[in-house]
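Chapter review. Work through the record for Carbon-nitrogen family hydrolase before attempting the end-of-chapter questions.
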Amino acid sequence: MRASLIQIAVNEDESVNSRRERVSSLVRDQAGSADLVVLPELWTTGAFAYELFAAEAEPLEGPTFDAMSKAAADAGVWLHAGSIPERDPDGPLYNTALVFAPDGTLAAAYRKIHRFGFDKGEAVLMSPGDELVTVRLPETVLGVTTCYDLRFPELYRGLVDRGAETLLVSAGWPERRRAHWTLLARARAVENQAYVLACGSAGTHAGVEQAGHSIVVDPWGEILAEAGAGEEVLRVELDPAKVGATREQFPALKDRLLGLDTPRRP
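Structure tokens for Carbon-nitrogen family hydrolase:
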């Protein structure tokens, strides 16, 4: 299975509409070279551009949905289109990831469960999701997560319990905590004996320098590919059978003794 992680640079001088068109073109460029394409978190606005969340919030089936649906269909790829600031018809904002099938239909939407900011920013401006999301591809089962989720291992255990073999992380991770990004991506891969495809963004979001360094980790925790700091398309070939082989060779998951409840809305 061929995967492309598109590490988008968010330039504050570029309009949301222009960036949407540019990213659509980048997705189309993956036709014939990728089966799965992954984009970063909140690439339309920037993950730290809090003042833009409400102004640029979209309904689920808004302009980014339309653009990414068409791009996925044109490229003939499974597309994790990163996330958007979604405005629910009832009013709340969510950080919502979109996954499209190769025919452009929506395969899944995931509202980010763990919001970053403690008592400000995303944690205050957006509501939490409460559902774990997996997507079955012909080659593997995806588990969908977003950025700050990476710090909460129980979420990934829940996804594995639902069949996940390839864990996707769409992020806007800051450069000042880049060491955590790499460490946690590898930890989630090792403890769940799964591939981790972690796609971050480049550039600067509202004065916050982004880490870049998107990374692909195999079920043994080995780094298969890693991007640099700037905009880049990171391409890698995965062997989906390796997940089952690893879990059979070193069956640690069978020794779990503690179960965990599915996260619930506060």
